[in-house]
Every structure is written in structure tokens, then in C-alpha cells.
Specification:
Elements (H helix, E strand, L loop, with lengths): L1 H16 L4 E8 L4 E7 L8 E11 L7 E2 L13 E6 L9 E10 L8 E6 L12 H6 L4 E4 L2 H7 L23 E6 L6 E5 L7 E8 L4 E7 L6 H5 L2 E6 L5 E11 L2 E2 L3
Parallel strand pairs: 1-15
Antiparallel strand pairs: 1-2, 2-5, 3-6, 4-5, 6-14, 7-13, 8-9, 9-12, 10-13, 11-12
Length: 263
């Protein structure tokens, strides 16, 4: 009887040892903000993505620090082990901080209906929502579309811009971009796209925001002197959150000393 009890105890205890370890990568105070980095000891990559669902930071007197979004950060998933947030520096001095929150670990796949390979650009229908109708019936705000110039001119008919300060404003030169797309998601259900295996592709990107629909439009130069055949073979993939693909991992870090960055 004792041996059976011992075996049962071991089987119960092993999962406790395998819990994911979330640690602090850094906590530093800069001139206008406090930067906090959280990391996880799990492999991350294209099909293993992380994002902070929630994070609360309090000082030694339990005062909550206010998050700052003045400095550009990626508030969506990334395929690294580290997530960073900025907070305003409290008016009163503080000794240490406590950090608590939930980290989302996203493992998209075809099996759990959260990964969609749209294929090469030449085969993708333009100017239409490419998200599966079964998903948009439940989440109508989700949107992703590959575009041509007619769709952009329709939304931004009088838009002019300039890439360099020494040049005049001009209408969009659509031929100078290799791919044009638009997307929309919300914090309840996010979507991620990969273009030629890149979450943030290209350079000389022109980003436009339609305030009426809240859709973001991106016109991207993927590489210098990209040929027509290369553009046609550009591969597009979508990852869309659902309950089957998300694991929420709670964490708590106590008595963290924030280092002052003197640079």
C-alpha cells in the first residue's frame, strides 16, 4: 500500500516541477520612463509566440505605476523570449517594485484552426477580407486584406506624402512598393501576419490609418530591385488567436530594484 501511495505522489508532483519560468530580464529607469522586460524560459519562434495579456507594477507602498505608450513598442506578439513595457516615473521616490500579470503563450497551428497559409501573392484575391468567414461571424472586427491601388485611392483619395524632407509632397507612387495590405484586430482577439517569414517586413513602409473603420493600411518595399516574379512568390501567412491556441501563464515578481540608467 505504501508503494502505491508513493507512486501516486510522484505522478502528481512532476507537473508542478514543469511549470514555465517567467523572470525579469531588466528593470531600468531612464530620463522619462521606467522600462521593464519580462522573459520566459521556453523556445520561441514562428509557431511559439509570446505577448503580455496584463501586467501591473506597484511600488513599495502599493501605488500602481501608470503605463506609458509615448515611446514606440510592439504591443502585439513577437517571436522572441522577451516582452518590454514602459511606465511613467512616479512623483514620489520608491524603494522597489512588485510586478504581476499574465503572459500569453500562442502556438498557432492548422489543427487548432489558428494558422492559415494564404500562399503566394500572385494567387491571393485583392481587396477582400481574407479571414475565414467562420471566424469573422464570431469576430466581425477582424480584418486582413491584400490590396491594390484602387482600394487605397478609394479610402485616401487626396493623400499626399514625401519620403524625404527635401522633396515636395506627391501622390502615392504605388509602383515603388512590393506589397500592400490592410489589417484590423482588437485586444480580445489578435491576429499576426508573416510575409516571407517576417513579422515586420521591408523598409520605406508607408502606414495609413482609416479612423472611420480603424483599419491600418501598409505599403511596403520588401527589398531593393525586387523582380515581378519575386513579388508574385511572396508568401503570406496569418495566425489568429483562439482559446485552443492560447495558454495563459500567470506570474509574480517581488521586491524588484530598478536600476537608474545614467546615459
Amino acid at each position: 500500500m505504501k508503494n502505491h501511495l508513493f507512486i501516486l505522489f510522484i505522478l502528481f508532483y512532476i507537473p508542478c516541477l514543469s511549470q514555465d519560468k517567467i523572470t525579469l530580464s531588466h528593470a531600468s529607469q531612464h530620463e522619462n520612463f521606467i522600462e521593464i522586460g519580462i522573459e520566459i524560459d521556453k523556445p520561441t519562434g514562428k509557431f511559439d509566440l509570446i505577448d503580455l495579456d496584463t501586467m501591473m507594477v506597484t511600488d513599495h507602498k502599493k501605488n500602481i505605476l501608470k503605463e506609458s505608450k509615448e515611446y514606440p513598442l510592439n504591443y502585439n506578439y513577437n517571436n522572441g523570449t522577451n516582452k518590454i513595457k514602459h511606465y511613467y516615473i512616479p512623483d514620489k521616490k520608491f524603494k522597489a517594485i512588485d510586478i504581476s500579470g499574465i503572459l500569453n503563450y500562442f502556438t498557432p497551428s492548422e489543427a487548432n484552426n489558428s494558422y492559415f497559409n494564404l500562399g503566394p501573392l500572385k494567387n491571393i484575391v485583392r481587396n477582400t477580407n481574407l479571414i475565414d468567414k467562420k471566424i469573422t461571424e464570431k469576430s466581425p472586427s477582424l480584418y486582413f486584406s491584400i490590396l491594390d491601388s484602387t482600394a487605397i485611392n478609394k479610402v485616401f483619395p487626396d493623400f499626399q506624402y514625401r519620403l524625404d524632407d527635401d522633396k515636395d509632397y506627391a501622390k502615392i507612387d504605388f509602383e515603388s512598393f512590393d506589397i500592400m495590405y490592410a489589417y484590423r484586430y482588437n485586444n480580445k482577439q489578435k491576429l499576426i501576419y508573416f510575409i516571407n517569414d517576417d513579422m515586420d517586413p521591408g523598409y520605406n513602409t508607408l502606414t495609413l490609418h482609416d479612423k472611420k473603420t480603424d483599419i491600418i493600411y501598409k505599403l511596403v518595399k520588401l527589398k531593393r530591385d525586387m523582380s515581378s516574379s519575386e513579388k508574385d512568390q511572396t508568401n503570406v501567412e496569418l495566425m489568429i488567436e483562439n482559446e485552443q491556441s492560447i495558454r495563459r501563464i500567470p506570474f509574480e515578481l517581488k521586491n524588484i530594484i530598478v536600476k537608474v540608467n545614467k546615459n
